[in-house]
Write a structure and sequence with these properties.
With 134 residues, the chain is an alpha/beta fold. It is 43% helix and 18% strand. α1 links the parallel β1 and β2. α1 packs across α5 and α2 packs parallel to α3 (62-71).
């Protein structure tokens, strides 16, 4: 069963994503912001296949969270889907530069988000933790 960590400071958004992901057969964990996300990931024995991450969050925003994940050899293989209201092309470019694998703007169709997460996991399934390390 694929596993997703939902990172968003808005409880209703976490609930919406969690409910739809679970109905689609995903195991789901949650984090309330970037600091919580990194803490949850560091405590997990089995890492998620993907994260959905909001941009605008307290303590540590989505872009800084993605940068921290991509810098950590244990975490950098995880697929990251940015789910945010920030849909300006410059925001999308910043997310791509940070290492986001897909970008979904709010409001979103839950079915589209599920398809996006599945697609990214499938596309990156060959990318392992040691990729890029010689």
């Amino acid at each position: 069963m694929p596993r997703v960590l939902v990172v968003d400071d808005t409880p209703s958004i976490r609930f919406l994503i969690r409910t739809n992901m679970e109905l689609a057969g995903f195991e789901v964990d949650e984090a309330v912001d970037g600091v919580d996300c990194l803490d949850v990931l560091r405590r997990m024995e089995t890492l998620p296949d993907a994260l959905t991450v909001d941009v605008m969050m307290p303590r540590l925003d989505g872009m800084a969270t993605v940068t921290a994940i991509r810098a950590d050899p244990r975490l950098r293989h995880i697929a990251i889907i940015m789910v945010t209201t920030q849909g300006h092309p410059a925001d999308i470019q910043r997310a791509n530069q940070a290492g986001v694998d897909a970008y979904v703007t709010k409001p979103f169709d839950p079915d589209f988000l599920i398809l996006t997460v599945r697609d990214v996991i499938a596309r990156l399934s060959g990318r392992g933790q040691d990729d890029g390390v010689s």
